[in-house]
Amino acid sequence: MASPKKLDAVVVGASWAGLWLLYLLKKSGFTVRLLDACEGVGGVWYYTNYPGCRVDTEVPFYEFSLPELWKDWKWSEKFPSRAEIRDYLLWVCQKLNIYEDIDFGTRITAAHWDEQARHWRIFSGQGLLAETTYFVPCTGYTTIKHVPTFPGLESFPLAYHSSEWPENLSVTGMRVGIVGTGASGIQIIENVAPDVKKLVVFQRTPNMATPLRQEVLNDDLRGQMKTRYPALFDQRVSRFGFNADRPTKKTFDDNAEQREVFYKRLFDRGGLHFWLANYDDLLSSREANQEAYRFWAKSVRDRVRDPSVAAKLAPVQAPHAFGTKRPSLETSYFERFNQDNVVLIDVNEHPIEQVLPNGVRTSQDFHELDVLILATGFDAIVGSMLTMDIRGVGGRHLREKWMLSDDSAGIHTSLGLMTEGFPNMFFPIGPQAPSALGLTPQMAEVQGQWIVDCLTWLRLENKAVIEPDHQAEEVWKAENDQAAKRTLFGETDSWYMGANIQGRKKQPLCYLGGVHRYINFLKEAAAQGYPGFHVR
Protein backbone atom coordinates (compact mmCIF):
# COMPACT_ATOMS: atom_id res chain seq x y z
CA MET A 1 0.00 0.00 0.00
CA ALA A 2 1.65 3.22 -1.18
CA SER A 3 -0.12 5.45 1.36
CA PRO A 4 -2.10 4.87 4.56
CA LYS A 5 -5.55 3.54 3.83
CA LYS A 6 -8.72 3.44 5.87
CA LEU A 7 -10.05 -0.11 5.93
CA ASP A 8 -12.61 -2.21 7.71
CA ALA A 9 -10.04 -4.94 8.39
CA VAL A 10 -6.35 -5.67 8.13
CA VAL A 11 -5.36 -9.33 8.20
CA VAL A 12 -1.73 -10.30 8.80
CA GLY A 13 -0.39 -13.62 7.51
CA ALA A 14 -1.01 -15.28 4.14
CA SER A 15 -1.50 -18.87 5.18
CA TRP A 16 -4.59 -20.91 6.09
CA ALA A 17 -6.35 -18.58 8.53
CA GLY A 18 -5.38 -15.35 6.81
CA LEU A 19 -6.41 -16.51 3.35
CA TRP A 20 -9.74 -17.87 4.56
CA LEU A 21 -10.55 -14.69 6.47
CA LEU A 22 -9.63 -12.57 3.49
CA TYR A 23 -12.04 -14.61 1.38
CA LEU A 24 -14.88 -14.42 3.92
CA LEU A 25 -14.43 -10.72 4.70
CA LYS A 26 -14.29 -9.76 1.04
CA LYS A 27 -17.33 -11.92 0.30
CA SER A 28 -19.22 -10.21 3.15
CA GLY A 29 -18.57 -6.73 1.81
CA PHE A 30 -15.81 -5.55 4.15
CA THR A 31 -12.90 -3.52 2.83
CA VAL A 32 -9.84 -5.60 3.67
CA ARG A 33 -6.16 -6.09 2.85
CA LEU A 34 -3.97 -9.04 3.78
CA LEU A 35 -0.33 -8.25 4.61
CA ASP A 36 2.56 -10.72 4.69
CA ALA A 37 6.31 -10.36 5.15
CA CYS A 38 7.03 -13.13 2.62
CA GLU A 39 7.00 -12.78 -1.15
CA GLY A 40 4.34 -15.45 -1.59
CA VAL A 41 1.55 -17.35 0.14
CA GLY A 42 2.00 -20.17 2.61
CA GLY A 43 3.47 -18.73 5.79
CA VAL A 44 5.65 -21.46 7.30
CA TRP A 45 5.13 -23.49 4.12
CA TYR A 46 6.58 -20.63 2.08
CA TYR A 47 9.95 -20.26 3.77
CA THR A 48 10.58 -23.67 5.35
CA ASN A 49 12.75 -25.52 2.87
CA TYR A 50 14.58 -28.38 4.59
CA PRO A 51 14.80 -31.82 2.91
CA GLY A 52 11.72 -33.98 3.43
CA CYS A 53 9.47 -31.22 4.75
CA ARG A 54 5.84 -32.37 4.63
CA VAL A 55 2.65 -32.28 6.69
CA ASP A 56 1.69 -35.03 9.16
CA THR A 57 -2.02 -34.87 8.28
CA GLU A 58 -3.39 -36.99 5.48
CA VAL A 59 -5.54 -35.98 2.53
CA PRO A 60 -8.24 -34.62 2.64
CA PHE A 61 -7.93 -33.29 6.16
CA TYR A 62 -5.27 -30.71 5.40
CA GLU A 63 -7.29 -28.70 2.91
CA PHE A 64 -10.34 -26.45 2.85
CA SER A 65 -13.76 -28.08 2.77
CA LEU A 66 -15.26 -25.70 0.21
CA PRO A 67 -16.53 -27.97 -2.63
CA GLU A 68 -15.39 -25.65 -5.42
CA LEU A 69 -11.87 -26.08 -4.06
CA TRP A 70 -11.61 -29.80 -3.33
CA LYS A 71 -13.52 -30.94 -6.41
CA ASP A 72 -10.87 -29.57 -8.76
CA TRP A 73 -7.63 -29.98 -6.81
CA LYS A 74 -5.55 -33.16 -7.20
CA TRP A 75 -3.11 -34.15 -4.47
CA SER A 76 -0.29 -36.43 -5.60
CA GLU A 77 0.43 -37.99 -2.19
CA LYS A 78 -1.50 -39.01 0.91
CA PHE A 79 0.77 -36.77 3.03
CA PRO A 80 1.58 -33.74 0.85
CA SER A 81 5.00 -32.15 0.67
CA ARG A 82 5.77 -28.56 1.51
CA ALA A 83 6.04 -27.71 -2.19
CA GLU A 84 2.62 -29.16 -2.98
CA ILE A 85 1.00 -27.33 -0.06
CA ARG A 86 2.46 -24.07 -1.35
CA ASP A 87 1.09 -24.81 -4.81
CA TYR A 88 -2.32 -25.59 -3.30
CA LEU A 89 -2.51 -22.34 -1.33
CA LEU A 90 -1.51 -20.31 -4.38
CA TRP A 91 -4.20 -22.12 -6.38
CA VAL A 92 -6.73 -21.33 -3.61
CA CYS A 93 -5.91 -17.63 -3.93
CA GLN A 94 -6.47 -17.73 -7.66
CA LYS A 95 -9.63 -19.83 -7.40
CA LEU A 96 -11.17 -17.54 -4.77
CA ASN A 97 -9.98 -14.39 -6.55
CA ILE A 98 -8.14 -12.99 -3.53
CA TYR A 99 -4.52 -12.88 -4.72
CA GLU A 100 -4.73 -9.21 -5.73
CA ASP A 101 -5.92 -8.33 -2.21
CA ILE A 102 -2.58 -9.39 -0.67
CA ASP A 103 0.42 -7.12 -0.10
CA PHE A 104 3.53 -9.30 -0.03
CA GLY A 105 6.92 -8.21 1.28
CA THR A 106 5.18 -6.18 3.98
CA ARG A 107 6.39 -6.90 7.51
CA ILE A 108 4.14 -5.47 10.19
CA THR A 109 6.17 -4.07 13.07
CA ALA A 110 3.43 -2.49 15.17
CA ALA A 111 -0.31 -2.21 15.69
CA HIS A 112 -1.63 0.47 18.06
CA TRP A 113 -5.22 0.95 19.19
CA ASP A 114 -6.50 4.53 18.99
CA GLU A 115 -9.27 4.74 21.55
CA GLN A 116 -10.50 8.16 20.46
CA ALA A 117 -10.74 7.22 16.78
CA ARG A 118 -11.81 3.64 17.61
CA HIS A 119 -9.48 2.03 15.14
CA TRP A 120 -6.10 0.30 14.87
CA ARG A 121 -3.06 2.02 13.37
CA ILE A 122 -0.90 -0.48 11.49
CA PHE A 123 2.82 0.18 10.96
CA SER A 124 5.66 -1.34 8.95
CA GLY A 125 9.31 -0.32 8.87
CA GLN A 126 8.31 2.40 6.40
CA GLY A 127 5.78 3.96 8.76
CA LEU A 128 2.00 4.07 9.00
CA LEU A 129 0.35 1.72 6.51
CA ALA A 130 -3.31 1.69 7.43
CA GLU A 131 -6.02 2.68 9.84
CA THR A 132 -8.44 -0.17 10.31
CA THR A 133 -11.48 -0.91 12.44
CA TYR A 134 -10.49 -4.55 12.91
CA PHE A 135 -7.01 -6.02 13.28
CA VAL A 136 -6.63 -9.77 12.69
CA PRO A 137 -3.13 -11.21 13.18
CA CYS A 138 -3.03 -14.71 11.66
CA THR A 139 0.66 -15.17 12.34
CA GLY A 140 0.78 -18.92 12.96
CA TYR A 141 2.03 -21.02 15.85
CA THR A 142 5.42 -22.14 14.48
CA THR A 143 6.74 -18.85 13.16
CA ILE A 144 9.35 -17.62 15.63
CA LYS A 145 12.34 -19.94 15.83
CA HIS A 146 13.74 -21.04 19.18
CA VAL A 147 17.51 -21.47 19.44
CA PRO A 148 18.99 -22.60 22.77
CA THR A 149 22.04 -20.75 24.05
CA PHE A 150 25.13 -22.73 23.10
CA PRO A 151 28.49 -21.07 23.88
CA GLY A 152 30.32 -20.29 20.66
CA LEU A 153 27.39 -20.94 18.33
CA GLU A 154 27.99 -17.67 16.50
CA SER A 155 31.50 -18.86 15.57
CA PHE A 156 30.25 -21.78 13.45
CA PRO A 157 29.96 -20.52 9.85
CA LEU A 158 27.32 -22.94 8.52
CA ALA A 159 24.79 -23.17 11.35
CA TYR A 160 21.13 -22.94 10.37
CA HIS A 161 17.82 -23.31 12.12
CA SER A 162 15.72 -25.91 10.32
CA SER A 163 13.19 -23.23 9.32
CA GLU A 164 15.96 -21.28 7.55
CA TRP A 165 17.53 -24.03 5.44
CA PRO A 166 19.11 -22.18 2.48
CA GLU A 167 17.65 -22.88 -0.95
CA ASN A 168 21.02 -23.88 -2.38
CA LEU A 169 22.37 -25.91 0.56
CA SER A 170 23.37 -29.48 -0.30
CA VAL A 171 24.94 -31.57 2.47
CA THR A 172 25.89 -34.51 0.28
CA GLY A 173 29.30 -35.83 1.31
CA MET A 174 29.51 -33.49 4.31
CA ARG A 175 29.81 -34.00 8.06
CA VAL A 176 26.51 -32.84 9.49
CA GLY A 177 25.33 -32.30 13.04
CA ILE A 178 21.67 -31.95 13.89
CA VAL A 179 20.41 -30.75 17.27
CA GLY A 180 16.86 -31.83 18.02
CA THR A 181 14.68 -34.77 17.07
CA GLY A 182 11.25 -33.23 16.73
CA ALA A 183 9.26 -33.36 13.50
CA SER A 184 11.78 -31.29 11.52
CA GLY A 185 14.71 -33.23 12.90
CA ILE A 186 13.20 -36.58 11.99
CA GLN A 187 12.37 -35.53 8.43
CA ILE A 188 15.85 -34.10 7.89
CA ILE A 189 17.59 -37.16 9.37
CA GLU A 190 15.59 -39.54 7.20
CA ASN A 191 16.39 -37.61 4.06
CA VAL A 192 20.07 -36.65 4.48
CA ALA A 193 21.48 -39.70 6.29
CA PRO A 194 22.00 -41.79 3.11
CA ASP A 195 24.05 -39.06 1.40
CA VAL A 196 26.21 -37.44 4.08
CA LYS A 197 29.70 -38.50 5.07
CA LYS A 198 28.77 -38.40 8.75
CA LEU A 199 25.62 -37.49 10.67
CA VAL A 200 25.79 -36.71 14.39
CA VAL A 201 22.36 -36.52 16.03
CA PHE A 202 22.16 -34.67 19.35
CA GLN A 203 19.02 -35.94 21.10
CA ARG A 204 17.51 -34.58 24.30
CA THR A 205 14.15 -36.37 24.29
CA PRO A 206 13.37 -39.50 22.26
CA ASN A 207 10.66 -38.86 19.69
CA MET A 208 7.83 -41.38 19.96
CA ALA A 209 7.40 -41.33 16.19
CA THR A 210 4.90 -43.66 14.54
CA PRO A 211 4.72 -44.93 10.95
CA LEU A 212 3.79 -42.47 8.21
CA ARG A 213 2.57 -45.02 5.61
CA GLN A 214 2.91 -42.68 2.66
CA GLU A 215 0.88 -43.47 -0.44
CA VAL A 216 1.00 -42.13 -3.99
CA LEU A 217 -2.45 -41.07 -5.20
CA ASN A 218 -3.68 -41.78 -8.72
CA ASP A 219 -6.92 -40.72 -10.38
CA ASP A 220 -8.75 -43.86 -9.25
CA LEU A 221 -7.81 -43.39 -5.60
CA ARG A 222 -8.60 -39.69 -5.70
CA GLY A 223 -11.97 -40.40 -7.28
CA GLN A 224 -12.85 -42.97 -4.64
CA MET A 225 -11.83 -40.60 -1.86
CA LYS A 226 -13.77 -37.65 -3.22
CA THR A 227 -17.04 -39.57 -3.10
CA ARG A 228 -16.45 -39.67 0.67
CA TYR A 229 -15.18 -36.12 1.14
CA PRO A 230 -18.36 -34.64 2.68
CA ALA A 231 -18.52 -37.44 5.26
CA LEU A 232 -14.79 -37.19 5.92
CA PHE A 233 -15.01 -33.44 6.51
CA ASP A 234 -17.84 -34.08 8.97
CA GLN A 235 -15.49 -36.40 10.87
CA ARG A 236 -13.26 -33.45 11.67
CA VAL A 237 -15.65 -32.44 14.44
CA SER A 238 -14.16 -35.02 16.79
CA ARG A 239 -12.03 -34.81 19.88
CA PHE A 240 -8.96 -33.43 18.14
CA GLY A 241 -10.49 -32.67 14.78
CA PHE A 242 -8.80 -35.44 12.81
CA ASN A 243 -10.18 -38.41 10.89
CA ALA A 244 -10.01 -40.53 13.99
CA ASP A 245 -12.94 -41.43 16.21
CA ARG A 246 -11.50 -42.51 19.53
CA PRO A 247 -13.11 -45.78 20.69
CA THR A 248 -15.27 -45.64 23.79
CA LYS A 249 -13.47 -48.78 24.94
CA LYS A 250 -10.76 -48.38 27.57
CA THR A 251 -7.37 -50.04 27.44
CA PHE A 252 -7.94 -52.77 29.99
CA ASP A 253 -11.38 -53.66 28.66
CA ASP A 254 -9.32 -55.80 26.26
CA ASN A 255 -6.96 -58.56 27.31
CA ALA A 256 -3.27 -58.45 26.40
CA GLU A 257 -3.69 -60.34 23.14
CA GLN A 258 -6.57 -58.12 22.02
CA ARG A 259 -4.56 -55.00 22.85
CA GLU A 260 -1.66 -56.20 20.70
CA VAL A 261 -3.98 -56.78 17.76
CA PHE A 262 -5.59 -53.35 18.22
CA TYR A 263 -2.27 -51.52 18.55
CA LYS A 264 -0.87 -53.27 15.49
CA ARG A 265 -3.93 -52.34 13.44
CA LEU A 266 -3.39 -48.67 14.33
CA PHE A 267 0.31 -48.93 13.51
CA ASP A 268 -0.43 -50.53 10.16
CA ARG A 269 -2.94 -47.83 9.30
CA GLY A 270 -0.26 -45.21 9.89
CA GLY A 271 -0.54 -41.48 10.24
CA LEU A 272 -1.69 -40.14 13.58
CA HIS A 273 -4.04 -43.04 14.29
CA PHE A 274 -1.92 -44.62 17.03
CA TRP A 275 -2.16 -41.28 18.83
CA LEU A 276 -5.70 -40.12 18.08
CA ALA A 277 -7.67 -43.33 17.43
CA ASN A 278 -6.27 -45.22 20.39
CA TYR A 279 -8.16 -46.35 23.49
CA ASP A 280 -10.30 -43.70 25.15
CA ASP A 281 -8.08 -43.48 28.24
CA LEU A 282 -4.72 -43.17 26.43
CA LEU A 283 -4.28 -39.52 27.41
CA SER A 284 -5.94 -39.66 30.82
CA SER A 285 -4.66 -42.85 32.49
CA ARG A 286 -0.98 -43.40 33.29
CA GLU A 287 -1.41 -47.17 33.29
CA ALA A 288 -3.18 -47.14 29.93
CA ASN A 289 -0.56 -44.81 28.52
CA GLN A 290 2.25 -47.10 29.67
CA GLU A 291 0.67 -50.01 27.79
CA ALA A 292 0.67 -48.04 24.54
CA TYR A 293 4.25 -46.93 25.16
CA ARG A 294 5.34 -50.51 25.79
CA PHE A 295 4.01 -51.56 22.38
CA TRP A 296 5.61 -48.56 20.68
CA ALA A 297 9.00 -49.04 22.36
CA LYS A 298 9.18 -52.73 21.42
CA SER A 299 8.40 -51.88 17.80
CA VAL A 300 11.37 -49.50 17.75
CA ARG A 301 13.80 -51.87 19.47
CA ASP A 302 12.93 -54.54 16.90
CA ARG A 303 14.17 -52.18 14.16
CA VAL A 304 17.45 -50.98 15.71
CA ARG A 305 20.37 -53.42 15.71
CA ASP A 306 22.55 -51.90 18.45
CA PRO A 307 20.85 -52.44 21.85
CA SER A 308 22.59 -49.40 23.37
CA VAL A 309 21.29 -47.16 20.58
CA ALA A 310 17.83 -48.73 20.79
CA ALA A 311 17.78 -47.98 24.52
CA LYS A 312 18.35 -44.28 23.80
CA LEU A 313 15.71 -44.15 21.09
CA ALA A 314 13.13 -46.18 23.05
CA PRO A 315 14.00 -46.34 26.77
CA VAL A 316 12.34 -48.97 28.94
CA GLN A 317 11.00 -46.12 31.09
CA ALA A 318 9.03 -43.60 29.04
CA PRO A 319 10.55 -40.09 29.25
CA HIS A 320 7.02 -38.67 29.22
CA ALA A 321 3.48 -39.89 28.65
CA PHE A 322 2.97 -41.03 25.07
CA GLY A 323 1.10 -38.43 23.01
CA THR A 324 1.61 -35.50 25.38
CA LYS A 325 4.27 -34.35 22.94
CA ARG A 326 3.07 -34.55 19.36
CA PRO A 327 4.35 -37.83 17.89
CA SER A 328 6.10 -37.30 14.58
CA LEU A 329 5.60 -39.57 11.59
CA GLU A 330 8.45 -41.56 10.07
CA THR A 331 9.25 -44.02 7.32
CA SER A 332 12.87 -45.01 7.92
CA TYR A 333 13.96 -42.84 10.85
CA PHE A 334 14.88 -45.63 13.24
CA GLU A 335 16.69 -47.64 10.55
CA ARG A 336 18.94 -44.65 9.90
CA PHE A 337 20.64 -45.40 13.21
CA ASN A 338 21.73 -48.76 11.81
CA GLN A 339 23.95 -46.91 9.33
CA ASP A 340 27.68 -46.74 10.10
CA ASN A 341 27.78 -43.02 9.30
CA VAL A 342 25.09 -42.06 11.86
CA VAL A 343 25.98 -41.36 15.50
CA LEU A 344 23.44 -40.74 18.28
CA ILE A 345 24.43 -38.53 21.22
CA ASP A 346 22.20 -38.35 24.30
CA VAL A 347 22.76 -34.79 25.52
CA ASN A 348 21.31 -35.67 28.91
CA GLU A 349 24.35 -37.93 29.41
CA HIS A 350 26.83 -35.83 27.45
CA PRO A 351 25.60 -32.24 27.12
CA ILE A 352 26.84 -29.81 24.51
CA GLU A 353 29.50 -27.67 26.18
CA GLN A 354 30.71 -25.52 23.31
CA VAL A 355 30.32 -24.91 19.60
CA LEU A 356 33.63 -24.24 17.85
CA PRO A 357 34.23 -23.02 14.28
CA ASN A 358 34.82 -26.60 13.15
CA GLY A 359 32.47 -28.66 15.31
CA VAL A 360 30.70 -29.35 18.59
CA ARG A 361 32.26 -30.33 21.90
CA THR A 362 30.22 -32.37 24.37
CA SER A 363 31.26 -33.39 27.87
CA GLN A 364 32.68 -36.58 26.35
CA ASP A 365 33.93 -35.91 22.79
CA PHE A 366 34.59 -33.41 20.05
CA HIS A 367 32.61 -33.91 16.82
CA GLU A 368 34.13 -32.29 13.75
CA LEU A 369 31.38 -30.90 11.49
CA ASP A 370 30.89 -28.96 8.27
CA VAL A 371 27.23 -28.06 8.80
CA LEU A 372 25.16 -27.71 11.98
CA ILE A 373 21.35 -27.85 11.78
CA LEU A 374 19.33 -26.58 14.73
CA ALA A 375 16.01 -28.42 14.68
CA THR A 376 15.21 -26.86 18.04
CA GLY A 377 11.63 -25.82 17.52
CA PHE A 378 9.74 -22.59 17.98
CA ASP A 379 8.39 -20.08 20.44
CA ALA A 380 5.10 -21.73 19.67
CA ILE A 381 1.55 -20.35 19.72
CA VAL A 382 2.34 -16.90 21.20
CA GLY A 383 5.80 -16.00 19.92
CA SER A 384 4.71 -14.49 16.62
CA MET A 385 2.25 -12.10 18.27
CA LEU A 386 4.58 -11.07 21.06
CA THR A 387 7.34 -10.08 18.64
CA MET A 388 5.08 -7.39 17.19
CA ASP A 389 4.62 -4.10 19.00
CA ILE A 390 0.91 -4.59 19.71
CA ARG A 391 -0.53 -1.95 22.04
CA GLY A 392 -4.10 -1.78 23.22
CA VAL A 393 -6.12 0.55 25.44
CA GLY A 394 -3.91 3.09 27.21
CA GLY A 395 -0.90 2.00 25.18
CA ARG A 396 -0.55 -1.23 27.13
CA HIS A 397 1.66 -3.74 25.34
CA LEU A 398 0.39 -7.26 24.70
CA ARG A 399 3.63 -8.59 26.22
CA GLU A 400 2.69 -6.82 29.44
CA LYS A 401 -0.83 -8.27 29.37
CA TRP A 402 0.42 -11.77 28.62
CA MET A 403 3.41 -11.78 30.95
CA LEU A 404 4.70 -15.33 30.62
CA SER A 405 7.17 -15.52 33.51
CA ASP A 406 6.75 -18.19 36.18
CA ASP A 407 5.22 -15.76 38.66
CA SER A 408 2.73 -14.21 36.23
CA ALA A 409 -1.01 -14.79 35.96
CA GLY A 410 -0.47 -16.23 32.50
CA ILE A 411 -2.32 -15.84 29.26
CA HIS A 412 -5.93 -14.69 29.39
CA THR A 413 -8.24 -14.76 26.38
CA SER A 414 -11.91 -15.12 25.66
CA LEU A 415 -12.63 -18.21 23.55
CA GLY A 416 -9.02 -18.20 22.38
CA LEU A 417 -9.89 -15.41 19.96
CA MET A 418 -9.79 -12.05 21.77
CA THR A 419 -8.23 -10.52 24.87
CA GLU A 420 -9.41 -7.74 27.20
CA GLY A 421 -7.82 -4.35 26.61
CA PHE A 422 -7.32 -4.97 22.90
CA PRO A 423 -10.66 -4.12 21.28
CA ASN A 424 -11.45 -5.31 17.76
CA MET A 425 -8.38 -7.58 17.66
CA PHE A 426 -9.00 -11.22 16.76
CA PHE A 427 -6.23 -13.84 16.63
CA PRO A 428 -7.30 -17.15 15.04
CA ILE A 429 -5.05 -20.22 15.49
CA GLY A 430 -3.80 -18.59 18.68
CA PRO A 431 -3.52 -19.42 22.40
CA GLN A 432 -6.29 -21.14 24.39
CA ALA A 433 -7.93 -22.54 21.23
CA PRO A 434 -7.46 -26.04 19.78
CA SER A 435 -4.95 -24.54 17.31
CA ALA A 436 -2.07 -27.05 17.15
CA LEU A 437 -4.31 -29.84 18.47
CA GLY A 438 -6.90 -29.37 15.76
CA LEU A 439 -6.61 -29.24 12.00
CA THR A 440 -5.34 -25.86 10.88
CA PRO A 441 -7.66 -25.63 7.83
CA GLN A 442 -10.63 -26.61 9.97
CA MET A 443 -9.76 -24.09 12.70
CA ALA A 444 -9.28 -21.45 10.00
CA GLU A 445 -12.80 -22.15 8.72
CA VAL A 446 -14.47 -22.39 12.13
CA GLN A 447 -12.82 -19.38 13.74
CA GLY A 448 -12.88 -17.36 10.53
CA GLN A 449 -16.62 -17.84 10.14
CA TRP A 450 -17.20 -16.90 13.79
CA ILE A 451 -15.18 -13.70 13.38
CA VAL A 452 -16.95 -12.65 10.18
CA ASP A 453 -20.36 -13.48 11.66
CA CYS A 454 -19.46 -11.33 14.67
CA LEU A 455 -18.39 -8.39 12.51
CA THR A 456 -21.53 -8.74 10.40
CA TRP A 457 -23.63 -8.70 13.57
CA LEU A 458 -21.84 -5.57 14.79
CA ARG A 459 -22.53 -3.89 11.45
CA LEU A 460 -26.23 -4.76 11.67
CA GLU A 461 -26.37 -3.49 15.26
CA ASN A 462 -24.61 -0.27 14.17
CA LYS A 463 -21.80 -0.92 16.66
CA ALA A 464 -18.10 -0.34 16.06
CA VAL A 465 -16.23 -1.92 18.96
CA ILE A 466 -16.21 -5.31 20.68
CA GLU A 467 -13.99 -6.36 23.57
CA PRO A 468 -14.16 -9.24 26.07
CA ASP A 469 -14.49 -8.47 29.77
CA HIS A 470 -12.25 -9.73 32.56
CA GLN A 471 -14.79 -12.19 33.94
CA ALA A 472 -15.18 -13.88 30.56
CA GLU A 473 -11.42 -14.34 30.41
CA GLU A 474 -11.33 -15.86 33.88
CA VAL A 475 -14.09 -18.29 32.93
CA TRP A 476 -12.27 -19.32 29.75
CA LYS A 477 -8.95 -19.72 31.54
CA ALA A 478 -10.64 -21.96 34.10
CA GLU A 479 -12.14 -24.03 31.27
CA ASN A 480 -8.67 -24.41 29.73
CA ASP A 481 -7.10 -25.36 33.05
CA GLN A 482 -9.79 -27.91 33.85
CA ALA A 483 -9.59 -29.45 30.38
CA ALA A 484 -5.84 -29.87 30.81
CA LYS A 485 -6.26 -31.46 34.25
CA ARG A 486 -8.45 -34.16 32.74
CA THR A 487 -5.45 -35.29 30.68
CA LEU A 488 -1.79 -36.19 31.12
CA PHE A 489 -0.60 -33.20 29.08
CA GLY A 490 0.16 -31.10 32.14
CA GLU A 491 2.71 -33.64 33.37
CA THR A 492 4.93 -33.09 30.33
CA ASP A 493 7.19 -30.14 29.56
CA SER A 494 6.12 -29.53 25.98
CA TRP A 495 5.44 -26.60 23.71
CA TYR A 496 1.75 -27.40 24.11
CA MET A 497 2.29 -26.19 27.68
CA GLY A 498 4.72 -23.40 26.78
CA ALA A 499 7.46 -25.27 28.63
CA ASN A 500 10.01 -25.42 25.82
CA ILE A 501 11.05 -21.80 26.42
CA GLN A 502 13.22 -21.33 29.50
CA GLY A 503 11.71 -19.12 32.19
CA ARG A 504 8.17 -19.30 30.80
CA LYS A 505 5.13 -20.02 32.92
CA LYS A 506 3.93 -23.56 32.30
CA GLN A 507 0.30 -23.35 31.19
CA PRO A 508 -1.90 -24.92 28.51
CA LEU A 509 -1.39 -22.90 25.33
CA CYS A 510 -3.80 -25.13 23.40
CA TYR A 511 -7.37 -25.84 24.44
CA LEU A 512 -7.44 -29.54 25.39
CA GLY A 513 -11.19 -29.99 25.74
CA GLY A 514 -11.67 -31.14 22.16
CA VAL A 515 -12.67 -29.52 18.89
CA HIS A 516 -16.35 -30.44 19.20
CA ARG A 517 -16.63 -28.87 22.66
CA TYR A 518 -14.77 -25.77 21.49
CA ILE A 519 -17.07 -25.31 18.50
CA ASN A 520 -20.07 -25.55 20.81
CA PHE A 521 -18.68 -22.72 22.96
CA LEU A 522 -18.34 -20.55 19.85
CA LYS A 523 -21.87 -21.36 18.70
CA GLU A 524 -23.34 -20.60 22.12
CA ALA A 525 -21.57 -17.24 22.35
CA ALA A 526 -22.91 -16.14 18.97
CA ALA A 527 -26.43 -17.47 19.57
CA GLN A 528 -26.67 -15.63 22.90
CA GLY A 529 -25.55 -12.27 21.50
CA TYR A 530 -21.91 -12.46 22.65
CA PRO A 531 -22.24 -12.51 26.45
CA GLY A 532 -19.02 -11.58 28.20
CA PHE A 533 -18.18 -9.01 25.52
CA HIS A 534 -18.54 -5.24 25.81
CA VAL A 535 -20.09 -3.84 22.64
CA ARG A 536 -20.25 -0.14 21.90
From TrEMBL:
It holds the Pfam family Lys_Orn_oxgnase. Its cofactor is FAD. Pathway: Siderophore biosynthesis. Keywords: FAD, Flavoprotein, Membrane, Monooxygenase, NADP, Oxidoreductase, Transmembrane, Transmembrane helix. Its EC number is 1.14.13.196. It is an enzyme of class 1 (oxidoreductase). One of its GO terms (molecular function) is monooxygenase activity. Belongs to the lysine N(6)-hydroxylase/L-ornithine N(5)-oxygenase family. This is L-ornithine N(5)-monooxygenase. It comes from Exophiala oligosperma.
